[in-house]
Amino acid sequence: MERMAATVLDRTPTGSIARVAAGTPSYRRLVGLLAAGGLANFAVIYFPQPLLPAIASSFGVDAGASGLAISATTAAMLLGLLLSAPLSDRIGRVTAMGGSLVLAGILSVACGFAPTWEVFLALRAAGGIALAVLPAVALAYLRDVVRTDAHGRANALYISGTALGGAVGRLAPLPLAAIGGWQVVSVVLGALSVIIGVLVWWALPRDGAVSMPLRIGDLLGGTLASLRDPVILAVCAAGALAMATFVGLYNAVPFRLDAPPFSLGAAEVFVYFAYPLGILAPGLFHRMSRRLGRALTSGLGALATLAAIALLIVPNVVAVFAGLGLLTAAFLGTHSVLTGWVVARAQTVGRSTSRASSAYLLTYYLGSTLSGAASTHLFADAGWTAVITLATGLTAACAVLFLALSLRGSART
Fold this sequence. Notes:
Blueprint: H1 2-8, H2 25-46, H3 52-59, H4 63-66, H5 68-91, H6 93-111, H7 117-131, H8 133-145, H9 151-171, H10 173-180, H11 182-203, H12 218-224, H13 230-258, H14 281-292, H15 294-313, H16 317-348, H17 353-382, H18 384-408
Helix pairs in contact: 2-6, 2-8, 2-9, 2-11, 5-6, 5-7, 5-8, 5-12, 5-17, 6-7, 6-8, 6-11, 8-9, 8-17, 9-14, 9-16, 10-11, 13-16, 13-17, 13-18, 14-15, 14-16, 15-16, 15-18, 16-17, 17-18
């Protein structure tokens, strides 16, 4: 009965549309627009990261509190993730994705004019609820409209788009902040989100699924029910740990580079040019997972993360640059494997793919929220060594989960 109930929650294509084949113009347009949506989405989420010292100075808050600029957004995304799947089931996935990008963009523009720290955080939190929709829905949408033999590659390309968004969010501040501070960055990226949101709503094909009523009971139960499957639970936990490591290090590194022995000041933004080094990782990890299996490939990602952490210990700008590049590649590659894994597992065991995707992102952003706030406080109270210790422990726990999944034999592609 539980399995049947979970299946009913899924929105099944009616067959009124033909699935898109890889390599066709429709496929390129579809994946390109979703990748662009991911770019705008993640740029808006993470643009404060390299600007945390400037934002803290602008509002007169300390380094520890500045991490709330991101954590307020990712914490609110937890609520948004509970709403995303039921909302998209009711109004359609394309409408939900496009509308979320438009609303998040408007709120980002408003952040640029926030008069106080409290108003800024409130706007960032409201934006987080909207920003949750696209990542929660995109992978389930791809599974509905793209032919089965193209799922893995389409998923990797979408994750590459989100990676590019992370790069834009970290690199755009370099020229834009020089023009008018962090406020200009917030306004420009917000406007970009609105434009891409309109294009997503206008140009993406509808998935042909039957509209379902919005039931209050689905908001929590439908999503968390996915976690009853042990493999989905383990994959979600691994995603949370990987994300916690990644965001924790990226949140704290601007303050480390601002302090001795680096004392880079505004020049610290240049280390974020390491971020694009990871953009090709999702495609590489997809190919590796087809040969080695998901668990082993993800385990190699954890080992690469430990190597990146070792580089970040070295008090040298080149080592920090290399460490951030390797960290980014390891995280984005692992994340691309895990997102495809959780949706594929849900389909295999007869659970809702959109609910499973939401459950993964719920734990993923929970890890981001907790570690993002903790890392800046740890740095302020105990220095870089404490941040490194936290990251190492989280990654080791992640590696243990991948080993357990590999031994269980649940990682076939």
